[in-house]
């Protein structure tokens, strides 16, 4: 199923005009609006061609947002919660390297995309987390893509790709998220795809990067008859990636289609399907040199483009006899189908049905560094014990010997296989009477994964880009390696999990006066998990020969099994008020109590804690012709984090809570025609409370929550000139990320840094568009994580850390009709 060459050849040929007639935009699951005026506005949005003009980065104030609502949608200016919208043009200007990378534009969110297209770490509003995206849920067309927000080696953005079929992205923080959808109290991101309109419309686009990635996008949409519309579209890309391992590490594509039928002014039905088969290199920490806040490259290793993986490590056969190919990387091969149905049964009574099914695989193969570079002589002591020396050090694939002073390092070849499946259904009824709107619904999700892991499998490498495997024989004749491997698996999993969520929710919204609107709601959810997990025998010597060090201390699945059985229920609540001084100036306040249930990996390790998040927030909203401004103050109290990290090849627990105070700002200034100045920023004071790691032996209470800075901001000036049939646009973004700590102990400092991106776009007669964007133009070495597989500091000098990607450029040519 990894082979998608028929799809590849079709889509690449789609850059020609013939493909414009073949591919089209993906489905936008925008629900039927709550009034005829909103419905008309929605139809106009779907039917109108894209404007090639300068993007208002943070969306149209009059745009209807669906996320964070019961499905009716609301004007952004009227929303009584913190929500960000990003249009297709804003996404294009941001030129994100991945789906998660786009979330850097959302206030209150710290998104690290230095791991490549997949494997992002996303943190929200000071919620404590060790990585992945534990409190982030992605929706497609208003339905969760995969209900668990994070499992080990799988977070939601891994099964989502942004392409030209996306109309906009909506993101709600806190607020009503605890009530709707999967009940996510953190961040809910809704990817809204294009829909067909009353005119035939399409686009074909080709782009190329200075690191040799080629990508094609295409879509087409239009009417089938008076009330029925279609869209179909997708992308395909291939390349080695900016961190070039000298083999094809990035390849794949996506195709999406939908069909929408309108039932006059009563409602609509949308049927959509999506197939994603895409993978990329899983980027992990590399050697760099740190002395306090000073960061330098490790000699011979480019911090922005260097890759540890290379041709010599691409395909290896581990101690268990399994052949592993690093070119498979991290990604997803999944299909997704869904239906959204919105219909007014009788006057003032509306039925909404949203359903989605997803199935396929989401695997992770990576080269995971263990410790920073050291001499072969020092590593001989690590492997052989005190007094051990280097007898011989040679290349595993031939080519001569090296001295004991050779700088070497170890990295594990990790293999994680996941077969995933989910079914989600959200059914609601909305009843309107006078100024009161009552919505009640039932949410059901059934999902499962089949996991097969082999972690550890460390290999001895030269400490350089595109490293080569080494064989080491100790001075006393003991064999430290076999074909470069210094160990077998140190942690393995063979498990099958099933989860089921049932939830009832109700919300009542009452327009007390033309200016004042209040709402309140509750959600009851039951979370049920069953699992069957094979047990491990640890520290095995697989050949019963203590002189062959490379297979001592191996973890082996032993054929016996244990079960997981979890079933708990909890309530969530929210209440808010919105007051509009005018239709352009308003304020809101909200309280919410949300829950986060333990998922498969937590329960495997007997972490059964249910997290509780209390959020207090208040905001100001201005939407003038010359200024849009959204300011939100929030306070979180978080109890019940339970997570595990693999530290030194063993699982280490983190249990506890945190509290946070913060301010989020976002807005756009439009002082004169053609010019916009968009900006966003977050100030966050988040500290641990009763928070313990390492089995309760380390108390981190009072420390700053890891990986989340006090200050983060970005400013984007843009200017567009109208020169008749030619419209050039200039834009740039300066982003600042403040000091953070990589670890809960606050000992691994991640210094602050700036990142500068910029671009130019030229539109010719609203048909042909050329664009050049540059990322990290100053080639900044900005660290997003240290070594997450140790506790505490790494010290100074050579360490392991993951920098942002180096300077790169993307060139694109698009034709639109």
Q: Can you characterise this structure?
A:
The chain has 817 residues and is mainly beta. It has one domain (5-816): Maltoporin, Chain A (Beta Barrel), CATH 2.40.170. It has a 22-stranded antiparallel barrel. Strands 3-10-11-6-7 form a five-stranded mixed sheet. The radius of gyration is 26 Å and the shape is globular. It holds the Pfam family TonB_dep_Rec_b-barrel.
- Into which percent range does the helicity of residues fall? under 10%
What's the CATH architecture name?
A: Beta Barrel
CATH superfamily: TonB-dependent receptor, beta-barrel domain
Please give the oligomerization state of what you see. Answer: single chain
Percent of residues in β-strands = over 45%
Query: CATH top level?
Result: Mainly Beta
Strand tally: 47
What's the N-to-C terminus distance?
34 Å
Gyration radius, rounded: 26 Å
| Mean of residue pLDDT values | 90
Count of individual helical segments = 7
Uncertain spans, ≥5 residues at pLDDT below 50?
A: 1-52
Basic shape: globular
The total domain count is: 1
Could you give a short account of the major beta sheet?
22 strands, antiparallel, barrel
Tell me the CATH topology.
Maltoporin, Chain A
Task: Please state the structural category.
Answer: mainly beta
